[in-house]
Write a structure and sequence with these properties.
By secondary structure, this protein is of the alpha/beta class. It has nine helices and five strands, in the order E-H-E-H-H-H-E-H-E-H-H-H-E-H. Helix content is about 60%, strand content about 10%. The chain binds adenosine monophosphate (AMP).
Length: about 190
């Protein structure tokens, strides 16, 4: 299995690049944000609870997200690799992910971060908010809160993988295809 984490702040292009990467490498896309939005659309109890946190720009509790990832693994036993997008977002989630993958006799191969300036991120999210229908994208206060949460709770996750020499960063600005090519260079070096 080849398991990849696409890392970076909200608006850094993880979702867009994930779609291209899963098509090229045949990985299964695991976006916890998408799974949570599906729970909300289904009006499940989990979705209704998660929505309260998401609308404030806060993280959904670790236990909820980890449980969701565990059941996603159960439903995708044949996957030849996963692309994690928006997960793990806390150090506790990173530890839990290691454990879940260990049970499947696999591990994270590579983490690639998309580096984008904060001004560019705000611009992209407000633009996306006009069409995405995501209530957390069209309010600058909520966007700023999501960045603060990213710096405080999510950026330490990088250290978890730096310690294992699995962490790489690329420039996440420029043309979509240029960014995609930069990602592919790192992935193919790590696959080799
Ligand atoms: P995203 O689509 O990845 O930007 O996620 C949208 C929102 O869903 C986030 O702002 C969080 O409220 C929630 N969320 C998504 N993934 C996670 C996660 N791994 N841990 C906690 N909350 C999450």
């Amino acid at each position: 299995m080849f398991n990849l984490i696409l890392f970076g702040p909200p608006g850094s292009g993880k979702g867009t690049q994930s779609d291209k990467l899963v098509a090229k490498y045949g990985l299964v896309h695991l976006s916890t944000g998408n799974l949570l939005r599906q729970e909300i659309a289904d009006k499940s109890e989990l979705g209704l609870e998660a929505k309260k946190f998401m609308d404030m720009g806060r993280l959904v509790p670790d236990s909820v997200v980890i449980g969701m990832v565990d059941s996603f693994f159960e439903k995708n036993k044949e996957a030849k690799g996963f692309l994690f997008d928006g997960f793990p977002r806390t150090s506790a989630q990173a530890v839990a992910l290691d454990e879940l993958l260990h049970k499947k006799n696999t591990e994270i191969a590579t983490v690639i971060a998309l580096n984008v300036s904060e001004d560019e991120l705000v611009k992209r999210l407000l633009e996306r908010g006009k069409t995405s229908g995501r209530s957390d994208d069209n309010n600058e206060g909520v966007i700023r809160k999501r960045f603060a949460v990213y710096i405080e709770e999510t950026s330490p996750v990088a250290d978890h993988y730096k310690a294992k020499e699995k962490y790489f960063a690329i420039k996440g600005e420029g043309e979509l295809d240029e960014i995609f090519d930069r990602l592919c260079v790192v992935i193919e070096q790590q696959m080799a």
